[in-house]
Amino acid sequence: MECQQLSMIAWIIPVIIILALWESVWKIIALWKSARNNHLAWFICIAIINTIGILPIIYILTHRKKE
């Protein structure tokens, strides 16, 4: 029983680290863009809500510069 728990923990820790890095990268990019565009509401929402990168990706995709 203990062996199964240890193997599960050994599998979950790398997944959590990868998800945290994924979230951090997208969050930093979206926060930077929202601050440069003076979108205070977006900045606050992105800073507070953790969505595994979904909210920052939505912001980046919806607020791209039109060429």
Secondary structure topology:
Elements: H1 2-36, H2 40-48, H3 54-62
- Strand-residue fraction? under 5%
**Backbone shape:** elongated
How large, in whole angstroms, is the Cα Rg?
A: 16 Å
Uncertain residue ranges: none
The biggest sheet, with number of strands, parallel, antiparallel or mixed sense and barrel status, is: none
| Class inferred from helices and paired strands | mainly alpha
The percent of residues in helical segments reads over 70%
Task: Count structural domains.
Answer: 1
DSSP helical segment count: 3
Average pLDDT for all residues = 88
- What is the N-to-C succession of helices and strands? HHH
Could you give the count of β-strands?
0
Q: Please give the alpha-carbon distance between the first and last residues.
A: 59 Å
What this model shows, in words?
- The chain is mainly α.
- It has one domain (19-67).
- 79% of the residues lie in helices and 0% in strands.
- It is built from 3 helices and no strands.
- The protein has helices at residues 2-36, 40-48, 54-62.
What keywords describe this structure?
3 helices; mainly alpha; 67 residues; elongated
